[in-house]
Please model this.
Amino acid sequence: MQRQHLHSLALSLTLGLAAGAASAADVTVATWNLGWHLDAPLATRWIAACGQKFSKSADGLWRPDAAGPKTGWQLRWGRDAKIEWDIGQLPPCDVWQSRFKPVPVTEAALAKRRQQIAEVLATKVNADVIAFQEVSSVRAVREVLPDGGRDYEVCGFTSHKVQRLAFAWKRKVASAVGTCEVYAPLALPDRPVKEQPRPGLSVTLRIGGHVTRFMTVHLKSSCVSPLEGGGGTRGQLASDDKACSVLQAQLQPLETWLQERSQGVDAVVMLGDFNRNIAHEASLPANTPVRSQGRSTNLWREVNDGVPAASLLTALDTACPLDATSAALCKDAKSRVLDKPEMAQLTDAKALGCRNPIGLDHIAVRLPAGAAAGAVPVAEKVALGFLGRTLEASDKRPEPLLAVSDHCPLRARLSL
Model:
């Protein structure tokens, strides 16, 4: 019996290694919104487009004009800016700002930023599976992975708009089951192209002998929290607020994916930029209605209702393990909206450093049946510190310094 047991154990180990899985069924997953991150050729095109001259037409619209008085870097941008520009194809020219003014970007500055992102991924994130948002292409991801992505498989897509999604995973840890799948319904394809949000992206990976399905999302922005005050419609999911109405429309396709694609796999991980504060929704009393006049009031309770049972996910708690002050603020932020001084403490370069430090990015999981009690971990914010700041060029600094992102990475160690 002992010899047979040893033989079975050896066979199991051999099969695990043959599948490319780590000897232990633990995996670190991460999500990071890289903030309009472009691959090098597209970035060159963008810099040239922002550097061209514009003039203001009689209709009040700024259009390219070689004799114009201003460059794209000098225009006033913002949502629905009166500029002839398709942000579905190229980012606006004010992605990086210093003192509320656009910073003209150079090739050298972007090369430095790519190097810094690679350092963050290698030394701070160090994840086996990474979900990216706001990346233009697979090439854009490979350009910032450690060693040019030599140890990774990467998948993404080229359809839809320039703010795309991608996955990267270490070959020695995971192997793909099938191909990456773009989930187009999340982009609301029946709407005019300009009004379509982003699709989802999923990949199924074999890790440690288990098959895990991953889904990354980047949902509609500007409808963040049901706790936002002011007495208006901002943040109120069931309201007629323009952004909230779009997010409302994304709930059904998101729930449909979870219901259908949670089946037939050992585990499910949904992660990304939800643009919605799930912790705030969870902090509402359990008897708070999930729907009002036919509309959902709570994204997470609506989508994650546990029907069918295999679709029920657990949203990981988020912590900021930096210092006592940051940890306390992150804890308080789960049940209330932080005021400006408090947010300033978290966004400070000596703390998390990113402009959007908490409340938007989430990791939710369904671990394999039989996972050890207490196996659901806490997700941790990765501090960017001074890498989260942007500084314009100066006499002492000929090239601008660009923030690596306005989001901090979020990582978690899962036991499969």
